[in-house]
UniProtKB/TrEMBL annotation:
Belongs to the TPP enzyme family. This is 3D-(3,5/4)-trihydroxycyclohexane-1,2-dione acylhydrolase (Decyclizing). One of its GO terms (biological process) is L-valine biosynthetic process. It holds the Pfam family TPP_enzyme_M. PANTHER family: 3D-(3,5_4)-TRIHYDROXYCYCLOHEXANE-1,2-DIONE HYDROLASE, THIAMINE PYROPHOSPHATE ENZYMES. GO terms for molecular function: 3D-(3,5/4)-trihydroxycyclohexane-1,2-dione hydrolase activity; acetolactate synthase activity; flavin adenine dinucleotide binding; magnesium ion binding; thiamine pyrophosphate binding. Keywords: Hydrolase, Thiamine pyrophosphate. Residues 440-575 form the Thiamine pyrophosphate enzyme TPP-binding domain. Residues 50-133 form the Thiamine pyrophosphate enzyme N-terminal TPP-binding domain.
């Protein structure tokens, strides 16, 4: 037999896992296994075949037992984000409800452009035992099943109906996962019988393969057009998005801004692109941003957006900029680069900024403009300093954020999601080091906080074991998903979790009130309940899952508890009640479009609708 025709007989499941174990990536000159391992909850649809294959590769691909499939997906997404999309984790779930639980986390990864591989059980291809346990029957389409639902939330989707198909499908999925323009989750539906079927695979399919992330060079004409427009600018602004970090272009962004004296504002995903102390960092922009960033954004004549999809919380539902302002958008994804008639520069941010810097030559923004931006930031800093000051009002998110900000180490990673905390952290957190903030607001998904913290800690411990992962979570999100406190203790992946209890879904209660509505079904006290409302004993609950835990009464006690948590060897949970009404950051907000009733008998709702619609006057309408 010739070398080129050598084969090895494997099951489909064995071949999938052997292939994954032999994929590597070049990270700054060091070769790492591309897949960092995975999260698994086994059931009848994946334990017998896929479980057997994973056991044989448990050293190369460590498997973490999940408590909930959705939280496994969140942990995988957070792992990929901490690794700047250069490594990923897989999730495997059984056929039926186990796989269905992954839908939300797949949507989160899709919205945030994060790599994740899902290996999920499916019904039998032969259909001989149909209908089987947990099968959804579609009488007019027997090929349609639950797993087809993932087509809407994945960048790559395939159902393996023959063992040979993975020879084409696995490389295609990996290519998608590593594509800067098309990155996102990949899904494989693995029928239970096909998982165990065998095939004589070419040995070379399993050879060690080294991958590199593509750096797409921008088109020279697009760079020239962008440079010409920027040179005409009297009031330029740079919007720095999450793509700056994925491109590892932080140094180039900073050098570009300094060379041309252009103020920089950050998106929520782009928080921690620049240190808080950098004089050209004018603050976070948008609905949950800063007065400083929004003030210069609305006066800017040319806006250079780098690595951002220009989500509504960044653009203030497209009211944050003057209607006559021109947009330039640097993005690896063509779809993002062309939004709202932006002048597109399609390509890698690092390469594009370098090329644009050369094309701009000696151009600098007028000194008066840069000085104005710095003055706005100085005023915002003064506001934040007072906003986070303990004792300025009842216990608040901002006060807790200020305490942690003062006491944490610069490489500690901050994780939060959904609710009111993303806004409060975006506005009030002062970045101590690059790439240390994960505010999940691409999908704004409650439940990500603790699960994402666990995934981030797994990633962080591989390279920065001395740093901590710090999770901010509200009581509502804690009740939604908390079981990975137990996961973190079991796996010795220490977290510091701050549970800030405001008695319900307080930020939505605030939105409800701000639109003229009466508090209803958000705060516990305003729900349909049969007993007196009471606070959950989060401390006791966390202790029951093996964590250290304590309850504090105020920010001073929080500071002392945080120091103890830093010194602790395992996960620590600190609980503090905060005011649901009087604790919000009041400044810095841009207009945000929400639907309000056009007809109502409620005068307060009618007045709020009129006020809401008045903000639409500044809205850009796609042009």
């Amino acid at each position: 037999m010739s070398a080129g025709s050598e084969t090895v007989r494997l099951t489909t499941a064995q071949a999938v896992i052997r292939y994954l174990a032999n994929q590597y990536i070049d990270i700054d000159g060091s070769e790492k296994r591309l897949c960092g391992g995975g999260f698994a909850i086994f059931g009848h649809g994946n334990v017998t075949c896929l479980g057997e294959a994973l056991y044989d590769h448990r050293d190369e691909l460590p498997v973490y037992r999940g408590q909930n499939e959705q939280s496994m997906g969140f942990a995988a997404a957070a792992y990929a984000k901490q690794k700047l999309r250069r490594r990923f984790m897989f999730c495997t779930a059984s056929a039926g409800p186990g796989t269905a639980n992954l839908l939300t986390s797949a949507a989160l990864a899709h919205a945030n452009r994060l790599p994740m591989l899902m290996l999920c059980g499916d019904t039998f291809l032969t259909r001989l035992p149909d209908p089987v346990l947990q099968q959804l029957e579609h009488f007019g389409n027997p090929s349609l099943g639950l797993n087809d639902a993932f087509k809407a939330v994945c960048r790559y989707w395939d159902r393996i109906t023959h063992p040979a198909q993975i020879i084409q499908s696995l490389p295609a999925a990996i290519a998608t996962i590593l594509d800067p323009a098309d990155c996102g989750p990949a899904f494989f539906a693995l029928p239970q019988d096909v998982q165990g079927w065998t095939y004589d695979y070419p040995v070379e399919f399993f050879e060690r393969t080294l991958h590199r992330i593509r750096r797409q060079a921008p088109d020279a004409n697009e760079i020239a057009d962008a440079a010409a427009l920027l040179k005409s600018a009297k009031r330029p602004v740079i919007i720095a998005g999450g793509g700056v970090q994925y491109s590892r272009a932080v140094a180039e962004l900073t050098a570009f801004a300094e060379a041309h004296a252009i103020p920089v504002v950050e998106t929520i995903a782009g928080r921690a692109n620049m240190l808080a102390a950098h004089p050209l960092n004018i603050g976070p922009i948008g609905v949950t941003g800063s007065s400083s960033a929004n003030a210069i954004a609305e006066r800017a004549d040319v806006i250079l957006a780098v690595g951002t999809r220009l989500q509504d919380f960044t653009t203030g539902s497209w009211t944050a900029f003057d209607k006559s302002a021109r947009l330039i958008s640097i993005n690896a994804a063509r779809h993002d680069a062309g939004k709202h008639r932006s002048l597109p520069v399609v390509g890698d941010a690092k390469r594009a900024l370098t090329a644009l810097d050369a094309a701009l030559a000696e151009y600098k923004a007028p000194g008066t403009w840069t000085d104005t931006a710095k003055a706005e930031r100085h005023a915002w800093d003064a506001y934040v300093a007072d906003n986070v000051r303990p004792g300025n009002r009842p216990n608040s998110y901002a006060q807790a954020i200020g305490v942690v900000n003062d006491l944490c180490d610069k490489r500690d990673r901050i994780v939060t999601a959904a609710g009111g905390l993303p806004a409060e952290i975006t506005a009030n957190w002062r970045t101590l080091d690059i790439g240390t903030v994960d505010v999940e607001f691409g999908f704004s998904c409650m439940g990500y906080e603790i699960a994402g913290g666990w995934g981030a800690r797994i990633a962080q411990s591989e390279t920065e074991p001395e740093a901590d992962t710090i999770v901010f979570v509200g009581d509502g999100a804690y009740l939604l998903m908390n079981s990975d406190i137990y996961s973190s203790v079991l796996t010795a992946k220490k977290l510091i979790i701050l549970v800030l209890d405001n008695g319900g879904f307080a930020v939505i209660d605030k939105l409800q009130n701000n639109t003229g509505n009466t508090s209803f079904n958000n705060l516990i006290a305003d729900c349909n309940i049969a007993v007196e409302p009471f606070a959950v004993d989060f401390e006791a609950h966390a202790r029951a899952m093996g964590a250290e835990a304590e309850t504090v009464a105020n920010p001073a006690e929080l500071a002392e508890a945080f120091e103890r948590a830093k010194a602790a060897a395992r996960t620590s949970v600190i609980v503090m009640q905060v005011d649901p009404h009087d604790g919000w950051t009041a400044e810095g907000h841009a207009w945000w479009e929400v639907g309000t009733p056009h007809v109502t008998d409620n005068e307060r709702v009618r007045a709020a609708h009129v006020e809401q619609e008045a903000g639409r006057a500044r809205q850009r309408r796609g042009v």
